[in-house]
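Take a minute with the sequence and fold tokens given here and flag any structure token that looks odd. Thanks in advance.
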Amino acid sequence: MSRALSNTVFFLPAIFCLTACGNAETNAPQQGIVQFTSEHTSSDQAWETLTSSGERSERLAGEGSLQYFMREVELSDIRRRELGLKFWHDYPNDPRRYKWLTLTVHMPPHYAQDIYEWTKNETVLAPNTAVVSTDELAKWEKAYPAMRESFQKSSEVTDIERRFLWVGEIEQKILRMVEAHAGGESVNRVSILDEIVDFIGTYPKALKENDKSNFRWGQQMLTTYVTVEHADVFGLKQKQESLAFFEQLKNTGNKSYANIDGRLARQRQQLAAKNRIADMSEGTRLLRSLPGTLTDHPSTSEGRIAANHDRIINYWKFREIGRTFFHEYFGHAEKIQWLGVVGGRDSVTYYQNFVDSIHINHASSDKEASAEWKQAYAELRAEIWSDLQTTNSQRGYILNKEIGRQFLDVRAAWRDNRDKKGLQALLDNIHMLYTKYGSGKNYTDIYTTAHGPRTHSTAIIRDYKILGMSDDDVLTFFEPMLSYEDEDLQNLAKAAFNFVELKRTPFEFVAKTLHGEDFDMNDMRGKIVLVDHWNTGCSACIRGMPSIDKTYQEYKDKGFEVLSICYDATENKKLVLRVEEELDLTWTTVDGESQEGLIKNKYGYPGYPQYMLLNRDGTIYAGTGDVVAKGLPALLDEMLAAEKAATNK
């Protein structure tokens, strides 16, 4: 199975909680479905029930952990199909039913005749061949058009949501065609290609509302499926066939496809890379077939929910299916790579109910599943660690990934219980990574280049407050680095001291505004100021601006200001002005392009967005970690309350 399709289509059996598959005409549940009987409740109560995980079934004797998880995924989907359809008909004036439909359409209506068989098929690296109930599927397909028409006509629905629904519909069609092709059936490939061209022509540019940075999400995904991942299914395997399809896309007027030659060059490179897999070992081919880590960052809330769902599914499959191949198929290098992924960020994501984990910040963890995995991982890691083939740089690669997970654990311990559990081990491991396993200076070694010296230490500067560290803890951590041989680490240690010094020394910055006027940070003394460091290539920066502006409008009469420093404003001035115009921003934006290196080195900023919330005297009150974790309004309330208390003394 292809990695890209599995990331966003084939592994979409249960987004969030809102699956649109079901039968509006019948109340008879399918075999194995969790039954739901409700009294006539308010729409709020019904929606809360719809968006909850519901009862969890017992694990069957001999059922593997991954198969059990996938069965729970499908049972949750089925439950929400029935509840969602009931909500749709019971509350015709409630706009939340459109949210349900939008998310639901990204989940294929499997309607497996045997859920146990379906989940067993989901635990292997092949299209699911479980038998589907065509009667149930036909009932859903009969009910869907009327709901879709209501959705399209509703004034409650935005163009972004209409686009998101359409992407989901095309995804479902692609999935069905891929599975039909795998089963030896013929597919109507022309129809799907024509629909993709129609979709891309309908949305040639960014939409106004909340969609400023990555409006091409969906477009590139769909074209990659049909031209790279499944070119054989859709008749685009040959270069000339791909050329003809891209010419159609070019003719739509969509700027994403204006540079057809560059597109085709990248396309051919991707196809060549895919074809080279045939020359690899069986272990490498299997490793590459495992569900990959998602890189899409959709700009809509529905898209983020869908992506979070996929990540949970993919991590489960990468762990559990990967374990079965570890000893029998993986070569030494492949084992290292696999351990690096499963031992890293979000690798132990076992929740009591996976649906809750998607839309509730602190879902209950499944302690049994987590303990089972941790034991298995420890055994596999010990085997690799003690293997004489394993180099120090490879051990550093694994440790580097594990440190990423430790950050999450330490942050959660401090957030939930004000507990510094694991903090010292985290800090010790970072120093060990730099001193014992190489800092990343050996650029000929793929493993050392994967963990450069800045990554984790810059995270300490950014997040030390939400890790439970004091200013003194930060200085204690960085002080040894002042004497390290690595110049980058020395500079980073100096940056940490400079950042802490901002508690006593006002932030200084002189620049030109986008309109050529002189700006001096000293002119903002007496105001509480959020300094927003960003550039136009940072989609997260732009996505966050509407929220900042909302806070700005609410608090500006209380002495709050925003200073936006754009570090590519000289090169991309027109784009910066466009962002300002489309988002209707009224705060000051200055051109910091010539000073980017100075700011990054002085304060240890590796990337964007970065935030400084300054006191009225220009000293720092909170950095990026606090602004993101606590939220800007909460921090402003803290500052204003402290000022009021001081005045009343």
In short: The CA atoms of residues 98 and 554 lie 30 Å apart. The domain at 510-648 is CATH 3.40.30.10 (Glutaredoxin). The first helix runs from residue 3 to 10. The first strand starts at residue 510 and ends at 513.
